[in-house]
Amino acid sequence: MTRRQYFTAGFKDGIPICLGYIAVSFTFGIMAKKVGISIFDAVLISLTNVTSAGQFAGLSLIASTASYIEMAITQLIINLRYCLMSFSLSQKLEKGVSNGHRLAVAFGVTDEIFGVSASQDGRVSPWYNYGVMAVAIPGWTLGTLVGAVSGNLLPDFLVSALSVAIYGMFLAVIIPPAKKNRAVLGVVIGAMTVSTVFAVVPVLRNVSAGFVIIITTVLTAGVAAYFCPVLEEEA
Hints:
- With 235 residues, the chain is mostly helical.
- The protein has 12 helices and no strands.
- The longest helix has 33 residues, at 3-35.
- 26% of the residues are buried.
C-alpha cells in the first residue's frame, strides 16, 4: 500500500473516534469555561494534550488552585499509560521508521487511536496513524471550541446541567468492564472508598485535591496489581 492509501484507511477508521471525541470534549469546553479558562486557552489545551482524563483532572486541580507539583505528578500518573502504549505501538510500526515519525505517532496516541492501530494486521505504517490523527485530533479540538463558546452563550443553569455529562461518561467507561471483571470492580469500589475517607475524616480533609487523586490512584492500582496480577499468556 502507498502512503496515501494508508492515510486514507486511517482517516476512515478515525471518523467514529472523531464523533465520540466531539461529544466528550464538548463537556470539557463547558467545564473549562465554568472554571474561568478562556476559549483560546481551552482550545490550546485540547490541541496540545488530547487526553480526556488528564484534562478533566487538570480542571479540578486548577479550580482548587493546586500547585504545579501536584499538577505535574497527577498528569504523570494519569497519562503514564500512553507511554506504555507508545512503547508497544513502536514495536508494531514498519521496520526502518525514523525516530521523527515515531515521536509524531507517539504524540497522537490515545486509548482509541492505539486500539485501532494495534488491531491492524501485520506492521503498521505511521501514515495510517497520521490519517487517524488527522480527523480525531481536530474533532477533539472542535468539540472543545463549541463547548467553550456554548458556555459563554448558554444560561448558567443549562451549563451546570450539561457539565454533569462527564460523570455519565465515566460511568459508561467503568460499568461495562466492572461487570465482567471483579478486579476492575474492586478497583472502582476501592477508589470510591479511599476518596470518601479523604472527604469525611477531618484530618484528611486538608489534603489537596491533587494529592488525593495521586494517593487514590497509586494505592488502589498498587493493591489491585499485587492481589490480581495480569498473567502473561504463553506463546
